[in-house]
Amino acid sequence: MSETKILLESGTNELEIVEFFLEDERPNSTYRGFYGINVAKVLEIIQLPELTEMPDVTHKSVLGAFNLRNEIIPLIDLANWLGKNRAPSEAPKVIVTEFNRTKSAFLVSGVTRIHRINWKEVEAPTNYVSSLTANSITGVVKFTDRIIFILDMEKICMELNPDAAPANDVTEDVKKQISSEEYRVLLADDSSMARKMIARILSESGFKVHTEENGELAWQYLQSIKIKAENERQPLTNYVNAVVSDIEMPAMDGHSLTRAIKEDPDFRELPVILCSSIITETLHHKGIAVGADDQVSKAELGELAPRVYKLLKADREG
Question: Taking the model in full, what pTM does it have?
Fold first, then answer.
């Protein structure tokens, strides 16, 4: 696979995933587990390159680094990070990724194929499954002969680099203004780590935040608000003032959620800010196509609250 070109249209609730596997060596057998990653995060898949040892690495799963077209990219043993004993393989594969404006590579036992599926086919993991997997899974895809787990790649990189926690660029004066306006933000994100981090940033900035785990639940929440507003004869702005949404989510992705909001006569003026690790110059047009009012990379979370406030302020003054 060379550099990926996404052909999917915006707002169709479809995605493409690269299916790969990890072979876990156990006392009397080898277990093969299947996993998936969004094609939008994959730059290419290569053979295991020659590695250079990195000094003082912070995690044992970081195997070293390699030079790829004059860029130094760290290699992470994904099986090791997941607590598995990767079985020796004659031809392991390396998945080179880019998200949050950072390039990383992951060593896996092998890559099988690319699947084009609908986000409705991706089930959110149950709370029980999440607890057993340290909240490292964001979605589950069931095929007739196997289950594919979609990993929370952002969580992996965040735990490998805990010092990269975002700063909040909101000044104290702006925080007071936001608090006095009592702005209410609906946040949708399937990653528990990202959801908590973004909710904290928004709350500390003075916003009142309601969270949902995916676009479908966020859309259901908006519909319940509409009914409540009608019953109480209040404007919708008394209940929600902006939506901040991830893009990759089970059941309904952020692009589809944005399109649904912008096509609804009652919500079309509601500002929507897409906040995702896959917002890049290449994919920015997808958010524009569905009517997103702004797009913020998770690599720049410090900018999120000021940009939400800027939209709300412009809307109120306009």
Answer: 0.86
